[in-house]
């Protein structure tokens, strides 16, 4: 992992040029659904041809191998050679990573048992970090509110201090039990070792490049070979299951007789569902937008399976599945062609640089990730080159930045027409460090322009923006229609990001009041409002559960017609924010947008539980729901649920 001073980075040779190669899966304009389906069928045929070609090559080489073996059949195998041949069939040590010099939280870990019956992780962290001042780097919880958890430290001394302090410590009338914890095995090595369990004498058949690519395609776009009509049917069925699960779980909690009666009436009216389910919204009438639609992708830089050559693409599987190899994205349906061309161009740079790619197993190497943001409307392009800089010499780091800059401003990379070029370091985080490292702008402007609903919006490297620009317009229209927004409506835009949803409906309502936890996103929202001449939108930075206590939310000018539009991250909205929304007596309508409906279930239930000491305010119940297909070729689907107060 360490870069020696004399092991300097060489600039890419000027002879390297991007060859215009014919893409075997060029996405062509299509006019109807049949043509969209034909793309998937054509891809399947090409995969089979590719696999057959490789199998043919293997058979030919196999014949030569058989001949060689027959010539050597009578030769006695040298004991040393025999040992080398069987060496690869020996199980690896899944705990070898503990002996490496690099830090892992598994080295200094303790287990805390006999925790109180009722406690919160935030409470526990406050106890150990603020009151007891223990230098804990991480708290791991196997399950929510479980009877035990793990604490990790950065040194043996810190670990021992925590052990002596916490063992027998009385917290909430309970004596804690602290002891040393065993490290977990490396999941990658553990998975590789599993091949020996059933048949230890047989060596596992290696995956080839064609097989790796097929696995990756099936993982990234599982619906690539299913007609779009069938995709929509499957997604509608999935949403029905979510709504039925909501009904089942609502019955099991203390929801009150009024909600039980309401639910029974709704199920009788809506074929067993708790609310009316509208037809799934999609771009089925514009099939060419159902492929190549992603405006952002994070590509892994790794090695291919067969040749161990650097490749920029998607991981074949997860680390804990025993897979670290990467496969090309040439045949991925939802990645636009221009993005594929940019990836190929960047891959040429990686290979020519002679700088090793990052190895997630040993934490060596440097090239790690390429993030691409592309506006399919304006054509503007942003690249973020992520490099693992652990133990990297300053001179080598400077040379690598210059190499990237020169390549895209003077070399073959100029064909990519990059508008915004960033560099980002990546390394193991120390205690107290955030989830991301600072971005360094190497070239161009610090943002790209995206167009949606007639607005021109600035998109920064860390801005949240719907992954499918064309479908996002369908999404926003559906949310606006469900909320019955008019010129007298005040819209509370909760988790507003860079203001996209609120700004897109600002012209149709009285006022938009937004809240977002990321300050940078809020600054971008304010700038987007100014640049689009929108004067009836204001935005605040901070946690929703705190900011919504402000007067602007609690007592808006148009308090007679207020609707909240909630678009939280995949994990959902913090429960404190849900409780605060319930306490807003002037709030009668709420639109909840979720890209992970199953993950939002707890929020749905918290909105609908009967009023109590902790859940003040009349409950919200679902009235209408509409799925929106934001992710063609995959099983994922956005769900919008319209809630209204259930007044007694």
TrEMBL record:
Coiled coil listed as a keyword:
no
Reactions mediated catalytically: uridine(54) in tRNA + S-adenosyl-L-methionine = 5-methyluridine(54) in tRNA + S-adenosyl-L-homocysteine + H(+)
Tell me the InterPro entries matching this sequence. Answer: MeTrfase_TrmA_AS, RBD_domain_sf, SAM-dependent_MTases_sf, TRM2_met, U5_MeTrfase_fam
Gene3D superfamilies linked: 2.40.50.1070, Vaccinia Virus protein VP39 (3.40.50.150)
Q: Which domain of life is it from?
A: Eukaryota
Cite the active-site annotation: 595, 595 (nucleophile)
Q: Which GO terms describe its molecular function?
A: RNA binding; tRNA (uracil(54)-C5)-methyltransferase activity, S-adenosyl methionine-dependent
UniProt keyword list: Methyltransferase, S-adenosyl-L-methionine, Transferase
GO terms in the biological process aspect are: methylation; RNA processing
Q: Which family does it belong to?
A: Belongs to the class I-like SAM-binding methyltransferase superfamily. RNA M5U methyltransferase family.
Q: What is this protein called?
A: tRNA (uracil(54)-C(5))-methyltransferase
Taxonomic classification, please?
Eukaryota, Metazoa, Ecdysozoa, Arthropoda, Hexapoda
């Amino acid at each position: 992992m360490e870069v020696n001073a004399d092991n300097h980075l060489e600039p890419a040779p000027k002879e390297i040029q991007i060859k215009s190669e014919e893409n075997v899966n060029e996405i062509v304009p299509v006019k109807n659904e049949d043509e969209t389906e034909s793309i998937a069928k054509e891809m399947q045929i090409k995969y089979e041809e590719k696999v057959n070609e490789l199998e043919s090559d293997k058979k030919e080489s196999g014949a030569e191998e058989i001949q060689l073996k027959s010539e050597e059949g009578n030769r006695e195998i040298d004991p040393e050679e025999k040992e080398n041949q069987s060496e690869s069939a020996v199980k690896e040590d899944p705990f070898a990573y503990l002996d490496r010099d690099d830090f892992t939280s598994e080295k200094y870990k303790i287990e805390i048992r006999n925790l109180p019956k009722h406690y919160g992780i935030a409470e526990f962290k406050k106890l150990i970090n603020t009151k007891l001042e223990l230098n804990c780097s991480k708290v791991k919880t196997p399950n929510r509110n479980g009877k035990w958890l793990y604490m990790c430290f950065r040194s043996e001394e810190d670990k021992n201090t925590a052990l002596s302090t916490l063992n027998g410590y009385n917290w909430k009338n309970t004596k804690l039990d602290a002891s040393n914890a065993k490290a977990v095995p490396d999941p990658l090595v553990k998975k590789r070792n599993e091949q020996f369990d059933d048949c230890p004498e047989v060596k596992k058949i290696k995956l080839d490049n064609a097989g790796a690519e097929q696995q990756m395609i099936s993982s990234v776009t599982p619906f690539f070979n299913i007609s779009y009509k069938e995709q929509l049917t499957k997604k509608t069925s999935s949403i029905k299951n979510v709504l039925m699960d909501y009904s089942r779980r609502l019955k099991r909690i203390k929801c009150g007789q009024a909600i039980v009666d309401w639910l029974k009436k709704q199920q009788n009216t809506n074929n067993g569902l708790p609310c009316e389910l509208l037809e799934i919204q999609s771009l089925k009438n514009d099939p060419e937008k159902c492929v190549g639609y992603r405006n952002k992708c994070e590509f892994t830089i790794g090695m291919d399976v067969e040749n161990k050559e650097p490749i920029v693409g998607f991981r074949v599987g997860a680390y804990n599945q025993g897979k670290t190899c990467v496969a090309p994205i040439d045949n991925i349906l939802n990645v636009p062609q221009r993005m594929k061309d940019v990836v190929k161009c960047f891959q040429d740079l990686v290979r020519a640089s002679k700088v090793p790619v990052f190895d997630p197993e040993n934490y060596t190497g440097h090239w790690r990730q390429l993030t691409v943001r592309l506006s399919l409307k304006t054509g503007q392009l942003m690249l973020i080159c992520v490099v693992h800089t652990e133990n990297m010499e300053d001179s080598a780091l400077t040379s690598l930045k210059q190499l990237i800059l020169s390549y895209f401003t003077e070399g073959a990379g100029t064909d990519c027409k990059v508008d915004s070029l960033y560099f980002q370091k990546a390394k193991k985080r120390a205690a107290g460090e955030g989830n991301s490292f600072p971005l360094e702008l190497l070239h161009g402007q610090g943002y790209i322009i995206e167009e949606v609903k007639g607005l021109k919006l600035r998109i920064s490297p860390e801005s949240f923006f719907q992954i499918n620009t064309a479908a996002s317009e369908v999404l926003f229209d559906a949310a606006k229609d469900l909320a019955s927004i008019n010129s007298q409506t005040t819209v509370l835009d909760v988790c507003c990001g860079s203001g996209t949803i609120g700004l897109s409906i600002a012209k149709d309502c009285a006022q938009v009041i937004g809240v977002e936890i990321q300050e940078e996103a809020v600054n971008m929202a304010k700038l987007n409002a100014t640049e689009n001449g929108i004067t009836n939108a204001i935005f605040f930075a901070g946690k929703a559960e705190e900011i919504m206590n402000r007067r602007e939310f609690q007592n808006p000018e148009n308090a007679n017609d207020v609707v909240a539009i909630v678009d939280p991250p995949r994990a959902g909205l913090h429960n404190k924010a849900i409780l605060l929304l319930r306490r807003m007596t002037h709030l009668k309508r709420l639109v909840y947008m979720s890209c992970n409906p199953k993950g939002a279930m707890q929020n749905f239930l918290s909105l609908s539980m009967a009023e109590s000491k902790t859940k003040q305010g009349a409950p919200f119940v679902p009235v209408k729901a509409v799925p929106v297909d934001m992710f063609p070729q995959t099983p994922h689907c956005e769900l919008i649920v319209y809630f209204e107060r259930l007044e007694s």
